[in-house]
Design brief:
Blueprint (H helix, E strand, L loop, with lengths): L1 H6 L6 H50 L18 H69 L12
Helix pairs in contact: 2-3
């Protein structure tokens, strides 16, 4: 069953193989760009979280000691700036989540593209192997043919036999 599939396999020309390899290199570069953008998004999310979000929460908790982050507490209407601070704090989690998920998504797309490139390279293995086998068998046949042509001299002795 597997030999039937191999018999229908036509060998690609060296130009087609080189073209596929150059396409694979392009795929790997594109995958690397996606992964790099993903890592930048995640790094940016972590930077924003540590440098802006956590200090804003610390400031809110120290400023508004009687109010929770959900906005509950006594007499919210009497405290100026409470609603604005809560609105700015409630904006951050969705933004940070967007950055993190976008980063993970970009990294996964980069990995997928790299895996597709690996599959394309693996599909070239039978073609390249056939050329290498042909080359080595041709070299072995020439070497064997050279041995038979040297044995025609008188006595069958070669210089190595002296």
């Amino acid at each position: 069953m597997a030999t039937d599939a191999l018999q229908g396999l036509e060998r690609q020309s060296p130009a087609e193989i080189q073209s596929t390899i150059s396409q694979v290199k392009t795929m790997l570069k594109i995958g690397a760009v996606f992964a790099a953008v993903g890592y930048l998004l995640i790094g940016m999310a972590l930077t924003f979280e540590l440098t802006q979000f956590h200090p804003a929460i610390d400031q809110y908790v120290s400023t508004y000691t009687n109010h929770s982050l959900a906005g509950g507490g006594p007499d919210r209407a009497g405290v100026s700036g409470l609603n604005g601070d809560l609105a700015s704090l409630h904006h951050w989690p969705s933004f940070l989540l967007w950055l993190k998920l976008g980063g993970v998504g970009h990294i996964l797309v980069g990995i997928f593209i790299a895996l597709a490139a690996i599959v394309r390279v693996l599909s070239l293995v039978p073609h390249r192997l056939s050329y290498e086998m042909e080359r080595t068998q041709g070299a072995a046949a020439q070497a064997a043919q050279g041995d038979h042509s040297d044995s025609g001299d008188a006595g069958g002795a070669t210089p190595a036999d002296d």
